[in-house]
Amino acid sequence: MTVISALQRERAKYQPKLPKSLQGPVKVVEGKVTESVADQDDIKELFPNTYGMPVITFEEGAEKADIPSFNVGVILSGGQAPGGHNVISGLFDSLKAINPDNKLFGFLGGPGGLVDHKYKELTAEIIDEYRNTGGFDIIGSGRTKLEEEEQFDKGLKILKDLGIKALVIIGGDDSNTNACVLAEYYVTKKAGVQVIGCPKTIDGDLKNEMIETSFGFDTATKVYTELIGNIQRDANSAKKYWHFIKLMGRSASHIGLECALQTQPNITLISEEVADKKQTLGEIVDNMAGIIAKRAENGDNFGVALIPEGLIEFIPEMKTLINELNELLADGSKTSEIFKGLKRSFRLEWVAKNISEESAEVFKSLPSGIASQLTLDRDPHGNVQVSLIETEKLLGKMVKIRLAKMKEDGQYPGEFDTQYHFFGYEGRCAAPSNFDADYTYSLGYTAAVLIAQGKTGYMSSVRNLTAPAHEWIAGGVPITSMMNMERRQGHVKPVIRKALVRLDDAPYKYFVSKRGEWSLDTCFVYPGPIQYFGPSSVCDQPSETLRLEQNKNISV
To answer: Which of 6, 216, 497, 541 is the least crowded, having the fewest Cβ atoms under 10 Å away?
Structure first.
């Protein structure tokens, strides 16, 4: 028996808002043709059928088209993000609005469900249980990569058996890269199956001119800012701890920056700034110790520091080391097998002997626990699993050593005690904010319209997101326009380029203009929990990052 909370019962009644262009008949407007963000010749050669397609925008139409019924499949791919269920709800409702006889099938457990032919039909009764809820449990998710022709062909068999015209893949940059590869393959094979992507990731690194934000980012950062605010209030009450908080975000620092804009902590590290300034680990520690010492001079032996999950990969000497380790320990490589066959007590010494002299020096200087974490099994993309590296503890320990030396020299009058936190999974399956509930529903609704218009190789796009929802602009953007060539697992592959924090954009500039004040004064903001009911000024607002990017007034 399904047991639901009072909040979920009330949230089920919420009807997400739609752009005006999706509230009736739709007119399709084709914009300029596109090209990839880099490596145009290479991408065009790899995707001859889906390269150079135009941007699609929907406008209000005059009359509803008579479209024969068709079936659609949907996959949730990768890590969870708030709003996934509403993408599926919007997709379902849009399909039924196009033709009541349309059917939606969900593949179970992610892309592996397509390959292994595990699925279920998603009916109105099932969909209604999951509207406006967090999580991906309606059909489950997984990290199987759709990269091999054998997988494509196995998937095609079940798609044909079910009479499925199109497949919607809801995922991040890698999942949507796979969607683009799959779309190209099916066009080449004249399979008659379209593929549409939807932009998901709480990390916020799947964004560009046409994808203003990935879904789940808004909700996750609001969850984290509530927790950070709670900790800041505790710090300001007890006045005796420095809280080092690591925040999820594998590569980009969008989550850390957004949380800083919302809560105004004393220290926020931005990985992209570290890389741009080529800051060493020692320089980062010195800067943090300097701020802590200045606050101590004012009698404030407490504070909060935000640390992005992927920071360690942006420190120049650490980035070089990690790149060498990724090559050395790549799954299936001869050196990886040798490493796995060694006794644990010999592994660190063996690694140091098989990387460059410069990287070996850095590797041997790290605490053994951190060095061991760097050699753990790689993620599905062949990269170090940065979430398993306790960067917050590494920095805390190094800062403590630095402050002890400063105290000996009479440069630090205070006491330094730390508490460590990592906020990650806490935000991935939260009930979506009104913004994410509306945005994801619109993305799913848009995907169905793209399918009805015969499009493939597109990502669902909803823009103008700081305006009221009825003014949002729906349409589609070719996935190839976001791609470039990168080295992954020892091979150069086409992938969607990750969007990192831009140091010349308004959100970062605003942060820089304020962080000096926040570092020394106690300017904490306590955002509190997500609000689902009440005035729009409280419940429907987008992230501060979006406000700043689109030159809107911010609330902090």
So the answer is: 6
- Strand 54-60 and strand 26-33: pairing? antiparallel
pLDDT recorded at residue 86: 98
Nearest 10 degrees: Cα torsion 292, 293, 295, 296: 120
Residue 490: CB atoms within 10 A of its CB come to 12
Q: What is the pLDDT of residue 326?
A: 87
CB 198 within 8 A of CB 169: yes
| Residues designated as active site | 203
- For residue 259, the SS3 value is helix
**Cα distance between residue 326 and residue 316, in whole Å:** 15
Last-in-domain residue among 441, 464, 488: 488
Claim to verify: residue 446 and residue 422 sit in the same structural domain:
no
Which residue has tokens 């050669």? Answer: 45
Angle at 234 between CA 228 and CA 240, to 5 degrees: 115
Phi/psi of residue 294, each to 5°? -65, -40
- CATH number at 412 reads 3.40.50.460
- Span 477-482, average pLDDT: 98
Number of CB atoms found within 10 A of residue 417's CB: 12
483, 177 in Cβ contact below 8 A?
A: yes
> For residue 384, what are the domain limits?
217-428+504-549
Question: Which pTM does this prediction carry?
Answer: 0.93
pLDDT at 200 over 90: yes
Measured CA angle at 117 (ends 112, 122), to 5 deg: 95
